[in-house]
Design brief:
The chain has 223 residues and is an alpha+beta fold. 55% of the residues lie in helices and 25% in strands. The protein has 3 helices and 6 strands. The protein has helices at 19-40, 111-138, 143-214; strands at residues 2-3, 8-14, 48-54, 59-67, 70-85, 88-102. Strands 1-2-6-5-4-3 form a 6-stranded antiparallel β-sheet. Strand 4 (59-67) and strand 5 (70-85) form a beta hairpin. Helix 1 crosses helix 3 and helix 2 runs antiparallel to helix 3. It is elongated.
């Protein structure tokens, strides 16, 4: 058995069980855990629970729970193991349950928000470069150089109010972005804390199922 704050697993091995008997027990455990998932992670609060059948060497049911950045899985399994004993080998059936919380990376920053913040600066630089290129292309030697400088200075004076407005707009957008980021972070932290608290309650159900499985040590299922 292994445990951590957000993970839990256990295994019970019984030579007297058959794979079929263990499979029935695993499905009973999975049904109990699935009902607990519906209770602690209701769809009405945005949670999604999915059940997947496992077939092959390992049989059982895998339950996945998710909402936003929260993601977790509970897998109830049974499988046969070969055991070597000096002169002969025997087979025993194992019932195993694993509950694990999956860590998701934080969401990337909004591309639209970055464009809104960098847009005014990019627009100012683009317009200034275009006007400067036009002035240089229309310039003539001699006195023309003086007129070129005068045109450039006039353009910069006319752009001063626009520059001030763009700078103010950019600052305002930055403040809005910071406030939106703080609000999003607070909402994210609260949502994860709520989901983790629900997950801890589900882990208690997972722990109880170990005792349910272990009680069949002396009284296995009938064929």
């Amino acid at each position: 058995m292994g445990t951590s704050d957000l993970n839990y697993q256990w295994a019970v091995r019984r030579p007297a069980w058959t794979v079929r008997q263990a499979g029935e027990l695993v499905r009973s455990v999975a049904d109990t855990v699935e009902n607990a998932c519906q209770t602690h992670f209701p769809p009405s609060e945005g949670f999604r629970t999915e059940a997947t059948e496992l077939n092959g060497l390992v049989e059982g049911v895998r339950l996945s729970v998710s909402r936003g950045e929260f993601s977790a899985v509970v897998s109830a399994q049974c499988y046969a193991e070969q055991m070597s004993q000096e002169t002969c080998s025997s087979r025993q059936v194992s019932v195993r349950l694993v509950a694990a919380r999956r860590d998701s990376p934080p969401p990337p920053p909004s591309v639209l928000r970055l464009v809104q913040i960098a847009g005014p600066v990019a627009l100012l630089l683009g317009v200034s470069a275009l006007v400067f290129a036009l002035i240089c292309a229309a310039a003539v030697p001699g006195v023309g150089g003086y007129f070129r400088l005068s045109l450039w200075m006039s353009f910069m004076l006319m752009m001063a109010p626009a520059v001030a407005w763009l700078a103010g707009a950019r600052t305002s957008m930055q403040l809005e972005a910071v406030e939106a980021s703080h609000a999003a972070l607070s909402s994210r932290v609260a949502a994860l804390a709520d989901a983790n608290a629900r997950w801890q309650r589900l882990l208690a159900v997972v722990h109880e199922q170990q005792a349910v499985v272990a009680q069949y040590k002396a009284l296995p299922f009938r064929r």
